[in-house]
Amino acid sequence: MRIGVIADWLNPTMEQLMRLLAERGVVLQLIFPEKQMTNLADVRVENDLYLLKSGTEPALSIGGSLHMLGALTLNPYPTVQMLRNKVIVMRALQAAGVPVPDTYMTSNASDFVPLLATGPLILKPYRGTRGRGVRVIRTPDELEGLPEDDLLLAQRYHAPDDAQGYDHKLFRIGERVFGIRRVWPIRTYEDKRGQPFEPSAELRDIALRCGQAFGIDLYGLDVIISGVPYVVDLNKFGSYMGVPNASELLADYIYAAGERAIHGEPVTPSAQMPAHA
Hints:
- It is a single chain.
- This protein is α+β, with helices and mostly antiparallel strands.
- The protein has helices spanning 12-23, 57-68, 77-83, 86-95, 189-193, 201-214, 246-262, and strands at residues 2-6, 27-31, 49-52, 73-74, 103-106, 121-124, 135-137, 152-156, 167-173, 176-182, 195-197, 218-226, 228-235.
- The protein has 7 helices and 13 strands.
- The strands form 3 sheets. The chain has a 5-stranded antiparallel β-sheet with strand order 11-10-9-12-13. It has a 4-stranded parallel β-sheet with strand order 2-1-3-4, with helices on both faces. Strands 5-8-6-7 form a 4-stranded antiparallel β-sheet, with helices on one face.
- Helix 1 (12-23) crosses helix 7 (246-262) and helix 2 (57-68) runs antiparallel to helix 3.
């Protein structure tokens, strides 16, 4: 079995995952597009399955090129491309009945001013990742200086119930859902690992609905608990940091997906068609 991994970096959980797959006899090809020049004529399908771990533009460009050449990617390249756009993600989740904050897009920051009369907004890059560029807007003055004629995305701000402001992460592997509480902002490695918790039936249902919206069962999501839970982001893969036995569970999942790919079977058999299809 040959598996290509397209990434910009690997955290300790992913490094351990690579070791476990290699111990099973998997031939791994690690592809780091940002760290090398690529002759596009050399891009060809050389693996049974590709793991599209990164959502950077170089990684998506290589993943998309391989997809056009017939490669199988986990998660599927078209889905990962959609997940990079928070406008698409939020509308798809709304259509699937997932609770999300009221979300608005515009190309004129002044359009957000009337919304501030009823409370703060969270301004975030519509193609952002890892929390970069996310900020709370409370007054119209804070909207000044934003780029014009660019797509701007804002969500209604909901203060977390927890006084410590824990960030709730949910991760899915197949039909299993795991919860991690993390402090924010993250300052140490232990902060990144967080504290595992058992998701409630409501949170598990929300997590599964997110997967149904995109036809996947390997991903992470960010949830704010503010009276009720709100999904504020959906990750194409997720770090899985802090999830008990994450490397072993992911190795089982990915190895089984590779076997299905070899036999011409769907690599994600448990996922349903998108709820909005």
